[in-house]
Amino acid sequence: MGETIETDAGGIWVDRRGEGPDILLVAGLSDPAEAWQAQLDGLSDRYRVTAYDNRGTGRTPLPDGPLSVPGMAEDAAAVLRALEIGSAHVMGFSGGSRIAQELALNHPQLVRSLVLMSTFARPDAYFRSMTGFWHWMAERAPDERAMLEAFLLWIYTPRAHADGTVDRIIEETLAFPYPQSVEAFQRQLAPFRTHDTLDRLSEITAPTLVLAGELDIVTPPRHGREVAERIPGARFELLPGEAHQPFQEVPDAFNARVDAFWREIQARG
């Protein structure tokens, strides 16, 4: 249902569903727009939901030269401008939450509200070590399945590994016709490992909801609390029993929570 649109930043693949207030979904490391399938399906009855492929993911090509978080935020802004969206409720996940932070900092007029899922602002020593391992794991894993089996240990709950959810996600990823190359994975990972927004978060003016999974080992809740404490008026909420990617594991509950937040913002006018 998606298409490549021409923006002032070049061609970017987008998927749009529904009618209503605009929602922009910003995916994390390696995730194409399909990562948001449960939100594209579950929220488009009352919102106009837009997801897109970041640079080097899915159908959006990897550019020459290094990637940067501010540069990827410019891509998000370019998508909104190309689609003639004056402002949107922006939801970013993990690395995509960093892009969303930069979008809110550099283009506040485009951001009606922020939802930051599994977010962080300043990478710590644990995060740098973990992602350093991911960098070389991507090129040294014996095959793509082995890479996914190892990588997803950090991403999903033990429940999802036990009930077959992770096995299903692996099969869907292997069948996806636009796989991410090792080079694209590493080049996308690099800016997320080092980018720091902590000292600028106080400049964000958009109403903000920060969500963190209780069991998240990639971006533990302490990171989300730190982000919420720095953004004026931000709300922090812990999702009990969830890990890094609850919008996929418990989509109905997740969608209900963000819908309630957006309805609250809409009611303010």
Write a structural description.
The protein has one domain: Alpha/Beta hydrolase fold, catalytic domain (Rossmann fold). The protein contains eleven helices and eight strands. The protein has helices at residues 37-42, 69-82, 95-106, 125-140, 144-151, 158-162, 165-175, 182-194, 221-230, 246-249, 251-268; strands spanning 3-7, 10-17, 22-26, 48-52, 88-93, 111-117, 208-213, 235-239. The chain has an eight-stranded mixed sheet, with helices on both faces. Helix 2 (69-82) crosses helix 3. The longest helix has 18 residues, at 251-268. The mean pLDDT is 97.
Short description:
By secondary structure, the protein is of the alpha/beta class.
Strand proportion, as a percent range, falls in 15-25%
How would you sum up the global shape? globular
**Biggest sheet features:** 8 strands, mixed
Structure classification? alpha/beta
Helix content: 40-55%
Q: Number of folding domains?
A: 1
CATH topology: Rossmann fold
| The CATH H-level homologous superfamily | Alpha/Beta hydrolase fold, catalytic domain
Q: How many alpha or pi helices?
A: 11
CATH architecture: 3-Layer(aba) Sandwich
